[in-house]
């Protein structure tokens, strides 16, 4: 197997492994950039649950849901708080300290908005982004090699590449200066 | 013929946006290790400045923005113009390089400038998320925003054309099948675990 064939296999394998993530990040980026194009829809459901009464710490109750605990409010014998998952689903919980009666409002964001959340999520999604970014850099490096081996495309491709790198690098360096 | 056209599109889209995609890659790699607090400590400086008579707060803000060379913070939006507890004009300029908070001390005839400079990783992060929806008064940033928008669409075009090339010629490759399955399984597992 020649180097060309090996690198082509690496390029293909990396691209296909990263495909679902890159597609999600790409579509998520469009969602971020053009929020007005598609109206984001949300769906909410409300359910009633019963927990042991007398709990005064929202953190204990919040263990029932996986996500970030926020907006804790302690008022008139009730605990209110919100838990948000990595992909934007929220649980708004109202718990009665006296009776343990609990109302949970679950709000789910649209699929497009979920993709946008993947783009900015911390935790495991951030590590996935790092892995896919490594893949993207690998695709760039192997892609350049594969293109360069195609002699017919060298002049046109080389001109495009040089112009792009000079312009983009010029902008990045110039703006960093202020 | 069709596949050759697709391959050309794939190659040229990649070459035309090579550096933007490299920025995406570097930013994505840096994200798990990046926190906003990694910006440098604020630097406080003072500068003489006399506010001309009969100038509105916005005109003062625009003049100071120009004086400090903060073209990346233009156009000055409403959120920039504030007043502090002592009712001094307080200007909070955000830009790709960080933040400049300026207190206009009119009685003393000077400005108190608190500058926080973004780390290189944070600077590149801001650039990677700047697209055509963003409107800047600085031609360089506007050009970057438009070009970055183009790169975003090129990335999607490359995904589509790359997958089309795979379907057209390489579906039999065992490595390709395993890679695709592994990536999709990881994505699905993460999705169901974190949703």
Main sheet properties of chain A: 5 strands, antiparallel
> How does the overall form of chain B come out from the CA principal axes?
elongated
User: What structural category characterises the helix and strand content of chain A?
Assistant: alpha+beta
Biggest interface goes to: A-B, 62 and 67 residues
The helix/strand order of chain B is: HHEHEEEEHHH
Low-confidence stretches of chain A: none
Secondary structure: helix percent of chain A: 40-55%
Please mark out the parts of chain B with pLDDT under 50 across 5 or more consecutive residues, or reply none: none
Number of strands of chain B: 5
Radius of gyration of chain A: 25 Å
Ordered list of secondary-structure elements with their pairings:
The complex is a heterodimer of chains A (178) and B (195).
Chain A: H1 3-33, E1 42-50, H2 58-62, E2 68-75, E3 78-84, E4 90-96, E5 101-109, H3 111-120, H4 124-148, H5 154-176
Antiparallel strand pairs in A: 1-5, 2-3, 3-4, 4-5
Helix pairs in contact in A: 1-3, 1-4
Chain B: H1 2-16, H2 18-30, E1 43-48, H3 57-67, E2 81-83, E3 89-95, E4 98-105, E5 110-117, H4 120-128, H5 139-169, H6 174-194
Antiparallel strand pairs in B: 1-5, 2-3, 3-4, 4-5
Helix pairs in contact in B: 1-5, 2-4
